[in-house]
Amino acid sequence: MSKNTKYINLILKSSSGIVEEVLKMVAEDYDLNFDELKKKYISPLKVNKRNSNKKGRKTQYAMFLSDKEVNQDLMEKYPDLDFSGLSKQKASIWRALSKKDKEKYAKMAKEYNNNLDKEKEKNKEEEEEEEEE
Prior knowledge:
Elements: H1 3-29, H2 34-42, H3 60-65, H4 68-77, H5 83-96, H6 99-132
Helix pairs in contact: 1-2
């Protein structure tokens, strides 16, 4: 989403009633269909709730970082470490892992990303169906 679209979304969120009223007046003055104008100019700018918490693809390293077992072990070993210290410990553990151990996280990442792709495709199809209605 571009910076301008973000700003427009903020403005629309705070003044969507005003924008719709202006659009109604324009539609009346120029004998245009208000619903078509609304669909064309307002709908694309509104934040899609389904996509507002976008999930991104994950790498094997990201899967390792979010491994609860690794986190729990580190918290037990180093209870006084802050986030930065724990991150450094995780990085050194990751570098020391064998290819075989890293493969576990590669499989997890692949599965996660495949599921994410399926979910995005499903959401895209639902959005297209909604637009057709």
